[in-house]
């Protein structure tokens, strides 16, 4: 595995650093059972809290905020400079090649949709059914081959190789693959998949939405053609994402949005139409006033994570993950979902079901009775969840007590996810809540509202 650095469960625990300061660490939330609790944010995979450092950087810059690429004033000049420097910082963070472009987008979803619009004519796209919908859905339907879920990293490479070898034409092709699953946290063999893609004349885009917050990602070392990630999962929740990589397809494509900023020159044609000369730089796909604070925040997060050191961050996260997995393994009826098996390297994202429990009920009880924020559902990866849970995964059980719900399928899952800001105490509190809920059941009554379980108040 090329991006895996997880230590085996038996390895001695490495020295573990304290969590990085994040916003919200002192927030308390009301409990239905009375009183309040410190909020344990264990849904980093959806959106991570802002790093304090990112917040401070944004606050320090905010008074100097100005328009980008258009103003003559001092603050516009300053903001333009910071925006372009943010691009360079992100390029460094991602280990980009000198000719690569870094386009600021809104999110990973936006980045992959942008790339989908930039595909050359006749391009075939290969994607595993296990992908997040952001990576599964943007591609033109006629050109997509959806590959079966592999059960080992090796099988993933073999499946891809076979599909690429079998393709009936040798025009352009693109493989889209995740670096770390948003459901199981398992790492995918990115470098091997990139080598397979290139050996068959295809290109590859890495969905690093879940990988970049946990591991160093190097476009050059992994030899991927593009990488996409979201600022809000990288501790920079200010509305920016990134698509970085090869310039040629991006430069040849129509602008993602037409408008000011993307155009270098516009003239009225004799026939009454409009002639446009589009930029060839990243600005081509950034029409409109760019989100300079978002880009600045992403660059700040890149700097903060690099300075904290991924070795240290990974050691801390793997320490928490071992603790979490060992704790869950001791709770009767808890089944942790996995595609690649127990020994697969993974990041701090884990999904599970509890026998006899509706997952929405379980997650609602964790929140309402313990102040612990996790996620339940199918995590925008419906085909993967169906593979992991079996048929009938679309159905929903009730929100009754474990006794009344006993025997029901738990068709959805609960996901717990964490990262650089998570203290040990949150994992311990989560484990103790899981043990208590499984042993004693919920202490409150819940009902279904809009398909979700909510406490009756
Ligand atoms: N890819 C993966 C693996 C994800 O987990 C997510 C979000 O959860 C996305 C893509 C989409 O990210 P965003 O919602 O920021 O566009």
Question: What's the structural blueprint in terms of helices and strands?
Answer:
Blueprint: E1 28-30, E2 36-38, E3 40-41, H1 52-61, H2 74-93, E4 101-105, H3 108-117, E5 124-128, H4 133-136, E6 144-147, H5 153-166, E7 173-178, H6 190-199, E8 203-207, H7 219-222, E9 226-230, E10 241-245, H8 248-252, E11 263-268, E12 274-278, H9 292-308, H10 310-329, E13 334-336, E14 349-354, H11 359-370, E15 372-373, E16 375-377, H12 382-389, H13 402-405, E17 413-417, H14 424-440, E18 446-449, E19 452-455
Parallel strand pairs: 3-15, 5-6, 5-7, 7-8, 8-9
Antiparallel strand pairs: 1-2, 4-10, 9-10, 11-12, 13-14, 14-17, 16-17, 18-19
The structure holds pyridoxal-5'-phosphate.
Pyridoxal-5'-phosphate binds next to helix 3 and helix 4.
Describe this structure as you would to a colleague.
The structure is a single chain. With about 450 residues, the protein is α/β, with parallel strands linked by helices. It has two domains: about 30-50 and about 310-455, Alpha-Beta Complex (Aspartate Aminotransferase, domain 1); about 55-305, Type I PLP-dependent aspartate aminotransferase-like (Major domain) (Aspartate Aminotransferase, domain 2), CATH 3.40.640. About 35% of the residues lie in helices and about 20% in strands. It has 14 helices and 19 strands. Strands 4-10-9-8-7-5-6 form a seven-stranded mixed sheet, with helices on both faces. It has a four-stranded antiparallel sheet with strand order 13-14-17-16, with helices on one face. Helix 5 (about 155-165) runs parallel beside helix 6 (about 190-200), helix 10 (about 310-330) packs parallel to helix 14 and helix 11 (about 360-370) packs across helix 14. It is globular. The termini are far apart. The model is unreliable at about 5-10, about 390-395 and about 400-410 (pLDDT under 50). Pyridoxal-5'-phosphate binds near residues 107, 182, 207 and 210.
């Amino acid at each position: 595995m090329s991006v895996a650095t997880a230590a085996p469960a038996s390895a001695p625990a490495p020295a573990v650093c304290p969590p990085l300061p994040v916003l919200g660490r002192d927030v308390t939330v009301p409990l239905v059972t009375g009183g309040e609790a410190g909020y344990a944010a264990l849904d980093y995979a959806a959106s991570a809290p802002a790093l304090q450092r990112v917040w401070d950087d944004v606050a320090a810059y905010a008074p100097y905020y100005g328009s980008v690429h258009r103003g003559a004033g001092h603050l516009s000049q300053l903001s333009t400079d910071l925006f372009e420097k943010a691009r360079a910082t992100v390029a460094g963070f991602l280990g980009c090649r000198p000719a690569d472009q870094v386009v600021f987008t809104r999110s990973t979803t936006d980045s992959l949709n942008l790339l989908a619009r930039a595909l050359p004519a006749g391009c075939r796209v290969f994607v595993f059914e296990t992908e997040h919908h952001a990576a599964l859905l943007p591609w033109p339907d006629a050109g997509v081959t959806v590959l079966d879920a592999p059960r080992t990293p090796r099988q993933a490479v073999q499946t891809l190789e076979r599909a690429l070898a079998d393709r009936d034409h040798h025009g352009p092709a693109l493989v889209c693959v995740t670096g770390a699953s948003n459901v199981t946290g398992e790492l995918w063999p990115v470098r091997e998949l990139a080598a397979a893609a290139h050996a068959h004349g295809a290109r590859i885009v890495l969905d690093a939405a879940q990988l970049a917050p946990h591991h160093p990602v190097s476009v050059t070392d992994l030899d991927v053609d593009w990488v996409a990630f979201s600022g809000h999962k990288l501790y920079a929740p200010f509305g920016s994402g990134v698509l970085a990589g090869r310039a040629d397809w991006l430069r040849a494509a129509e602008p993602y949005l037409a408008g000011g900023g993307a155009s270098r020159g516009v003239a009225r044609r004799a026939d009454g139409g409009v002639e446009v000369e589009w930029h060839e730089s990243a600005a081509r796909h950034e029409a409109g006033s760019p989100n300079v604070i978002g880009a600045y925040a992403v660059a700040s997060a890149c700097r903060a994570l690099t300075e904290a050191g991924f070795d240290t961050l990974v050691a801390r996260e793997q320490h928490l993950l071992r603790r979490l997995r060992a704790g869950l393994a001791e709770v009767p009826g808890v089944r942790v979902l996995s595609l690649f098996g127990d020994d697969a390297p993974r990041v701090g994202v884990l999904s599970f079901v509890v026998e006899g429990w509706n997952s929405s009920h379980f997650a609602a009880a964790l929140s309402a009775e313990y102040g612990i924020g996790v996620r339940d559902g199918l995590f925008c990866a419906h085909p993967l969840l169906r593979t992991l849970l079996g048929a009938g995964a679309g159905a929903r059980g009730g929100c009754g007590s474990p006794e009344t719900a006993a025997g029901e399928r738990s068709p959805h899952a609960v996901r717990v996810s964490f990262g650089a800001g998570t203290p040990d105490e949150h994992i311990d509190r989560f484990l103790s809540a899981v043990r208590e809920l499984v042993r004693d059941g919920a202490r409150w009554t819940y009902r279904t509202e809009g398909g979700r379980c909510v406490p009756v108040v």
